[in-house]
Amino acid sequence: MRNVLLRWKVSSLGGIDQIDSLMEICESLEVLGHLSTELDGVTQLVELRINEGHALSEISDLESFEVLETHEEDEDGVLASIRCTHPLALSAVELSNIYVHPPYGIDSKKGLEVRIFGISSSIRSFLEFVRATMPPDTISVQTIKNGAAKEDDFLTEKQREVLEHAVLRGYYDNGSEVTLKQLADDLGVARSTIGEHLKRAESEVVKRAVNNFS
Prior knowledge:
- By secondary structure, the chain is of the alpha+beta class.
- The chain has two domains: 10-109, no CATH class; 145-213, Arc Repressor Mutant, subunit A.
- It has helices at residues 10-13, 19-25, 87-94, 120-133, 157-169, 180-187, 191-213; strands spanning 2-8, 26-38, 41-50, 65-74, 77-84, 98-107, 111-118, 138-143.
- Strands 4-5-3-2-6-7-1-8 form an eight-stranded antiparallel sheet.
- Strand 6 and strand 7 form a beta hairpin.
- The protein is elongated and about 60 Å long.
- It starts with a strand and ends with a helix.
- Residues 147-152 have low confidence and may be disordered.
């Protein structure tokens, strides 16, 4: 299983269909939970802060969002149920063995942050879609551990994270055009840093494989 954190800066969200419009209406929108999930949309329990001069009802004017019910409203914000049919949400629903962690949401100062987990093949398909439609600024990949010792404990946490990200990104695929710079940009680190982590991780993996031969 893989746990992936996707982050978009506010500047990266400008111009993205409907997301920029949503940010004009809302100072922040946090998804607290999923009330129902169908192939044609997700009903979400959300907490919103509406920008001055705008109204909650404006969200329903957007193609992929519909306000279903207002539950509470005070000076701190609005608690409401919203149906979301945005392509990003639908792509997560359509893929099997992938799940989105609430809470997550958009903030006019912090941007957008979404955490997903699932099996590697589904995660990889989702990331391919996201990169094509609204590329994240950073992608952080972690292995979900259980109580038992893992076979990859011979790697440091950072080496494991970088190596897994490279694999999910297709860096090792035949004919891959993915570069170290692209991997570094995904993870928000220097090219030299990710190169060193990969070099050490690859060395440890090869040594481990050779030792297993005997």
